[in-house]
Specification:
This protein has 756 residues and is α+β, with helices and mostly antiparallel strands. A hairpin with a 5-residue loop joins strand 13 and strand 14.
Length: 756
């Protein structure tokens, strides 16, 4: 049989003896430790005291991480992410009413005792003797020690059973735990001021659910700050701390209980002369009801960010890559979980919101005929800093959003950082054939065959050293031009301006498919799902599936004179203690010669000129631009455009399914042509930016890569700056010119639809 529990008088006597012994030990421990050491009665207690640390450190508790972005030239917060809804505040940022209410409610002798309220212990012992419930007589210091132990358990255990066991141990109503708690409370007194202890309690206390600390509680229940709490509000919040589930004013069922406890606290404040009778009368007359409680629901996570929600998610998924948060990936995740970090990101919120409005207007998330998706990524040339990361579908990772208009997938990034497997990029991939062409001694004025032709199966038409010398064609390959006809002989300049497929396939047959793939890799390109890049003839027309962010960064390599800079999202971090920590360091390397980059930039200016496939996107505001369009089997549409300051990649297409974008209009424009209309206002806003605008001229290409022609860089204007080139291909006019005279519409890149 189990041992019977003591009841009645026996329980009272044991309670008296227990708390009397505790009081005796504590008094002697404070006044004469040597005497305690000689007492056989208190040997166990003394041993317990000696084995404990002198005190516990208050430290920083788990709190919010705040993300900042640039708006109007100022850094402003746009998202908060946390495990516990807490924002630690300084002493002066808390209303005196809240400080006094806590003392009145929990420990009226707080300012006169040394960490343990011996008089309170004696009072509790008397109460226990008379048969009342066992009382702990805990000081604010002791309660703080308990709260620190609970938070330590939360930080130490993720397993629910172990966590609950550790929390129960930290709150066990036993003499052993009280002795430990008492010594540590005394230690707090020796190492912290009363103000520091009181503030720590206000910052650590739970106020119901996942809300911790007086600042978060003031915001959640009364839509104010801790500094601006009224007397009635302060007492109402302090009324919560002993029984958060039953007294928090967030539930109407709790209003009466909250009012009852609040009024007791107000009465104590009055009797202790903390407030005047007039203040008491006003506060006691204030109800706790719908007229006073003003709930502001916590907005934790990227779904509730005020802007740049998908970018916010990208930052969180990059926590493991933030060296300022710790040495290892695990250290960084733990520092993020504990929170308190101010994260200054690279995002330009003005440019971001302009892009979001543009996408919402031209590629509405509400489109019901097919699953229309779009995404825009912009990076700063020469740094890799991400300035825009926008998409048409609203970001929502709660599982509660409208599945037709929201998504938890970030279309701009790799699968690891946003869940997308990417989409085929079409003729924007032709950049890498162009670069390899230039690296192998060819020029942009070289004449190439743009006629439709068939490459026989199992022929040696396409060198591919990594495949044993040549690409294996299981069947014959006949790439089509977008015009549907052969285009004769034309310059590389003309082929680029018109995105002529047959011309670029012909160029690839004179190069090496493995080399072209390696050029792309050297410029930072990889498939979004981390699958191997294809290096077959069809890949020349864009069957690979890198993310828009990756494509923007690759084209930025050309704009920067051949320097590849890895994308970064975080400039710096300010830790919980105010220390400035590094964000993501810029990582740049020269991967192209300046001469090759200059020739490629010059060649790519053609598509943005009148008659080029991307001409409509050019805002013609005096900023030199280059770019390239791409279409993948009419299911996906791409465009990349760049100044010397910023590079932007745009994807529009089927999130899933196979709607032919040349057979459906949106807002009166063929879906396949939307890219230029979407891109134009984005480029115009970037070019007008005081921070990123007014890009200068691109570097002039050398004569060798121009094949002995002398060129003059075109100036943006409604009409070509000089006559068309010679009558090769389908250009018109005669004599040397700027090389931009020919072209034949969109290049139709190959490649299948990819689901994110």
């Amino acid at each position: 049989m189990s041992e019977p529990k003591p009841t009645g008088l026996l329980r009272s006597i044991l309670g008296l003896l227990g708390f009397s012994a505790l009081a005796a030990v504590l008094v002697v421990a404070l006044t004469a430790p040597a005497i305690v050491a000689t007492s056989r009665v208190t040997n166990n207690a003394v041993g317990l005291f000696e084995n404990l640390p002198d005190y516990v450190k208050i430290g920083n508790q788990s709190q919010r991480n705040i993300l900042y972005g640039l708006r109007g030239g100022e850094q402003v917060p746009f998202a908060q992410v946390y495990d516990q809804n807490r924002q630690e505040v300084a002493w002066d940022a808390v209303s005196p009413f809240a400080k006094d209410a806590l003392v009145a409610a929990e420990d009226v002798r707080f300012y006169s005792h040394g960490g343990v309220d011996v008089a309170g212990i004696a009072r509790a012992a008397v109460n226990n003797l008379t048969g009342k419930d066992l009382q702990g007589a805990s000081s604010i210091e002791q309660q703080l020690v308990k709260q620190l132990a609970i938070q330590d358990a939360v930080a130490s255990y993720t397993d629910p059973k172990k966590l609950e066991a550790a929390k129960a141990k930290a709150q066990a109503n036993t003499l052993d735990r009280k002795l430990k708690e008492a010594k540590l409370a005394i230690g707090l007194e020796k190492n912290y001021t009363k103000h520091q202890i009181l503030l720590a309690y206000l910052n650590i206390a739970g106020f119901g659910g996942n809300t911790y600390g007086i600042e978060a509680a003031a915001e959640q229940y009364y839509s104010t700050t801790a500094a601006n709490l009224t007397l009635a509000q302060a007492a109402s919040l302090i009324a919560v701390v002993q029984q958060p589930p039953l007294r928090n004013p967030g539930s109407q069922a709790n209003w009466e209980r909250n009012t009852s406890r609040r009024d007791v606290i107000l009465g104590t404040m009055l009797s202790e002369k903390m407030i005047t009778p007039a203040q008491y009368a006003e506060a006691i007359a204030t109800p706790v009801d719908a007229t006073t409680v003003k709930i502001s629901s916590p907005k934790n996570g990227c779904t509730y960010a005020s802007a740049a929600k998908a970018f916010c998610d990208y930052v969180i998924k990059n926590v493991k890559n933030l060296p300022g948060l710790g040495e290892s990936a695990d250290d960084r995740r733990e520092a993020w979980r504990r929170g308190g970090n101010a994260v200054y990101t690279t995002i330009d919120l003005d440019q971001q919101e302009n892009a979001e409005r543009d996408l919402a207007l031209r590629t509405p998330a509400s489109e019901t005929r097919f699953r229309l998706g779009s995404a825009v990524s912009t990076v700063q040339v020469g740094t890799g800093r991400i300035l825009i990361m926008a998409q048409n579908k609203g970001f929502d990772d709660t599982g509660q959003g409208d599945p037709n208009q929201t998504t938890a997938i970030n279309f701009n990034t790799d699968k690891e950082y946003g869940g997308s497997s990417g989409f085929p990029v079409g003729s924007t991939w032709k950049l890498f054939t162009l670069i390899d062409w230039l690296q192998n001694g060819h020029g942009i004025q070289d004449t190439v065959n743009a006629n439709i032709q068939t490459y026989p199966a199992r022929s040696k038409s396409f060198p591919a050293r990594c495949d044993g010398g040549y690409a294996y064609l299981p069947e014959s390959y006949t790439p089509k031009n977008d015009s549907g006809r052969s285009e004769g002989q034309m310059s590389v300049l003309s082929a680029t301006k018109g995105s002529v497929n047959a011309a670029f396939i012909n160029m690839a047959s004179k190069l090496d498919l493995c080399d072209i793939r390696d050029v792309a890799v050297s410029m930072g390109v990889h498939n979004a799902d981390n699958s191997e890049l294809a290096h077959v003839p069809a890949s020349i027309l864009g069957t690979n599936t890198p993310s828009p962010l990756t494509m923007a960064n690759a084209y930025a390599t050309v704009a920067s004179g051949g320097k590849l800079c890895q994308p970064i999202a975080v400039d710096k971090i300010v830790g919980p203690d105010g220390t400035e920590l590094p964000g993501q360091a810029q990582s740049c390397s020269q991967v192209l010669t300046p001469e090759v980059a200059a020739a490629a930039a010059y060649d790519l200016q053609g598509p943005l000129q009148p008659g080029g496939t991307g001409s409509i996107a050019n805002p013609r505001d005096g900023t030199p631009l280059f770019g390239k369009t791409g279409t993948a089997e009419a299911l996906h549409s791409y465009m990349v455009a760049s100044s010397t300051q910023t590079t932007t990649a745009l994807w529009i297409g089927n999130i899933e399914g196979s709607q032919n974008m040349r057979r459906i209009s949106i807002g009166g424009i063929l879906a396949s042509n939307l890219r230029t209309y979407v891109m134009k206002p984005i480029l115009a806003a970037l070019n007008a930016s005081a921070v990123y605008g007014k890009g200068g001229a691109f570097m002039e290409p050398t004569g060798t890569l121009l094949r002995s022609y002398t060129y003059r860089a075109p100036t943006p204007s409604p009409a070509p700056s000089s006559p068309p080139t010679t009558g090769t291909g389908n250009g018109t006019g005669s004599g040397p010119g700027n090389g931009f005279g020919a072209g034949n519409g969109n290049g139709n890149g190959g490649g299948g639809n990819r689901k994110p």
